[in-house]
Amino acid sequence: MNVPAARTCWFALSIVAFCLVAGTARAEPQRTLKPEDSAAIRVVDEPQISPEGNSVVYTVKTADLEKDKNVTNLWMVGWDGSENRALTFGKETQSHPRWSPDGKWIAFISSRADENENNQLWVMSSSGGEADRLSEQKGSIDDFAWSPDSKRMVVVVHDPDPRDPAAKEKEKKTVPPLVIDRFQFKEDIEGYLTDRYSHLHILDLPSRKIEQLTSGKHDDVLPAWSPDGRDIAFVSKRGDDPDRTENSDIYVVAAQPGGKERQLTTTPEPDAHPDWQSAPAWSPDGKSIAYIHGADPKKIAYGVHSLAIVSAAGGEPRYLSTPLDRNVVQPSWTTDGKSVFGIVEDDGAEVLSRFTIAGDPPQVLAGGRRKITAYNVAASNGRTIARASTPDRPFEIFAVESGQLRGLSKQNDQLMRELRLGRVEETKFASSDGTEVHGLVVHPVEEKAGTKSPALLRPHGGPQSQYANEFNFEAQLFAANGYAVVLPNPRGSTGRGEKFAMGIFAAWGSVDVQDDLAAVDDAVTRGIADPDRLGVG
Question: In this model, does residue 18 exceed pLDDT 70?
Fold first, then answer.
């Protein structure tokens, strides 16, 4: 090589190296979190994989600041991560997407084009295009499920509000006062309850005819079709006054108007309680139903709810997860009928696990220090997707492959690349009576070695909940402004078994306070928190 050529080559390589370094520098996070970023985070939820496992539908909720409202739309992405695109673009929320078993259609719920703003049922081709309205109900549709042959749907319809005048008359009439004569008169999100309930209806798709299946002064929810399409399992609280009990049970009804109902579970504990958002799941052969079984009602939310199976003909249930001593939700069967999937709430994390009918120890399918809140399995090949979050990433949809998660939705990737976040550390420390307590500490973004920072103690609510390894916007916002954030899981928290949760039963403000204060002491002792600059809130 002659000298001029070598110099030219060296110069070109230098330019390339400079560009690479400059590009890397530009890729580095440039700023910390700001309050307005709360509106920039896209809330990803409701993952549903197609029956053949090639496509995934999910929802994305975004903030419309001008109208001061949130809007949710449907998105689709390929199993390989390609063609991540919006399916709907409405200004009203579209939610609850569900594939038809034959894979040809995607149904969803939306209040678009309804003059009374009630949710109605819509369907669109799985290849895209305009959606077609399936229902014209006076009441709002809360839930639905496809029949195995894709020709019918079971629909949960909330009774219409008799006070609600026609949309064109709304401005001319005054809504009369409420008259309530039931024990439970109000509910979070729902508001005043009156005598309106939710019941099952059957929608015949070819004719668009809808007929009521259940009735009465009680709610019938969380329907699930039997594999042969003859029966529907659902959840209801019955009795003289359903408002005065939390003992939900599973019922089965023939999938035709006037069909006979029968009660499947009869224990005094709640079964498939609606708060757990876990519908009963039929085994592939239709002989068994998996569901979530609650604890002794006297323990209320402190008790652990476990995975159970019962014969579809009735009888004594079997409890698969009791030895685990952890909350389990969202049961679904493997295609061979030998195991049941479920999400397990563990210490500081929620993981996807599999429980065998034979009673073997549960196997973690997707674990790690993260929080998984939903999953879905393709009927034909077992491909699995999950909704998960880690301390440095909001919830996204992932493919589950050999225990590892591969990103699919990537809705917040660009925003997170811009941000510098506080380091999140898991902690263990002794309370005043020697009890080991766990929690998290979010370090200040600009933390300097050897320097103590102002610190905030943030007790979690519930108290039956826990701080898990998920993205915590508020904690990161404080960390962006120079605070260390102490997030303890004191006695009363979930994730460490029933005895730990029962530690403050009928005793709020006792050992839980000592556990929280011990978390602060630990942060001070380790040189993270400045003892002269401590706060709580």
Answer: no
**Cβ within 8 Å of residue 481, ≥6 positions away:** 32
| Structural domain contains residue 486 | yes
DSSP state of 271: B
pLDDT, tens digit, for every residue of 113-158? Answer: 766 779 999 999 998 889 999 999 999 999 999 999 999 999 999 9
Q: What is the CATH number of the domain that holds 485?
A: 3.40.50.1820
Q: Which of 218, 248, 253 is nearest to 235 (CA)?
A: 248
DSSP sequence for 415-448: HHHHB----EEEEEEE-TTS-EEEEEEEPPTT--
In a domain, 439, yes or no: yes
Tokens of 291: 């569901």
The two beta strands, 186-187 and 191-192, are: antiparallel
* Residues whose CB is less than 8 angstroms from the CB of residue 164 and which lie 6 or more positions away in sequence, other chains included: 116, 175
508 domain-assigned: yes
Q: Give the length of the chain.
A: 537
| Whole-number Å distance between alpha carbons of 440 and 367 | 18
Q: Is the pLDDT of residue 5 over 80?
A: no
Q: Could you count the other beta carbons within 10 Å of the beta carbon of residue 467?
A: 23
Distances (CA, A) of 97 to 110, 162, 199: 10, 29, 20
283, two tokens? 């085994």
CA distance 306 to 324: 9
pLDDT of residue 19: 42
Q: What is the DSSP string of 107-126?
A: EEEE-TT-TT---EEEEEET
- What's the Cα-to-Cα distance from 263 to each of 197, 314, 317, rounded to whole Å? 19, 8, 13
Structural domain of 449: 423-536
In a domain, 478, yes or no: yes
How many folded domains does the chain comprise? Answer: 1
Give residue 460's identity as a one-letter amino acid code: H
> Which helix H or strand E contains 343, and what residues bound it?
strand 339-346
